[in-house]
Specification:
Elements: H1 3-15, H2 19-31, H3 35-47, H4 51-64, H5 68-79, H6 84-96, H7 100-112, H8 116-129, H9 133-144, H10 148-160, H11 164-176, H12 180-192, H13 196-208, H14 212-233
Length: about 230
């Protein structure tokens, strides 16, 4: 049986809730050089506490093939193991190969290290490469630096790309600027997508404008969403 077949069967049985069988098949596929199998098996190992195994798996995959996505995965494992310099090395290699999430990760590293200029550069590259999370981080970074107009532009780009957190922040920026109709529009879009903060912001705005029925409706939706999230986590 080929590595590709083991990979497909491994994914199928994993989705069917049989992780032990999935691991066996995915391991065979990974050993045969299937990069996709390594990327699915790695998180299984990591989430079960077998961090060293996940790292070894990723390193073998990189040795066997040009796999920039796996370089990013390896960076994740190393970063969460406290090996930041090694993580940065692999994320840089992945970013140089065009992996957008690796660019985003490098931005986060730079920001945490107190290097906002480097963080901005990586976040901008991540945005250009299509990482939607980078829109929010770049906007927040610029806002902290007092570059509110630029921050607003990136929030808008993220909001238009469907990122609810950017919709919330853009709505807040519009509210501060006194453009309440646009603030309401963005908060409503985010609220309809399930964002609790947007629901609460929208409720407060509606209450201030005398639309108490709508305010109460969104406040109730926020309470229900928060309760569901707490139940899901328990």
């Amino acid at each position: 049986m080929t590595g590709a077949v083991h990979y497909v069967l491994g994914v199928i049985v994993l989705e069917a809730g049989r992780p032990a069988e999935a691991e066996t098949r995915l391991r065979r596929a990974a050993e045969a050089g299937n990069v996709g199998a390594a990327r699915v098996l790695g998180p299984l190992l990591y989430d079960s506490g077998r961090i060293a195994e996940a790292e070894a798996l990723y390193r073998r995959a990189i040795e066997n093939a040009e796999a920039p996505e796996v370089m990013n995965d390896l960076g994740f494992v190393l970063h969460h193991s406290g090996r930041t310099e090694e993580a940065e090395h692999w994320w840089t290699r992945a970013a140089d190969a065009g992996i957008a999430v690796a660019m985003f990760n490098l931005g986060g590293l730079a920001e945490a290290a107190g290097s906002p200029e480097t963080a901005e550069r990586w976040y901008r590259q991540a945005c250009q490469a299509g990482d939607k999370d980078a829109f929010l981080n770049l906007g927040v970074l610029l806002n902290k630096a007092g570059r509110t107009r630029e921050a607003e532009q990136w929030y808008r780009r993220g909001a238009e790309a469907g990122e609810t957190a950017c919709m919330v922040n853009l709505g807040s920026a519009m509210a501060r600027a006194g453009i309440e109709d646009e603030a309401e529009r963005w908060w409503k879009r985010a609220a309809e997508a399930g964002d609790v903060k947007a629901m609460l912001n929208l409720s407060k705005m509606l209450r201030r404008s005398g639309r108490r029925g709508g305010a109460a409706w969104w406040r109730q939706r926020a309470a229900e969403a928060a309760e569901k999230a707490e139940t899901d986590q328990s």
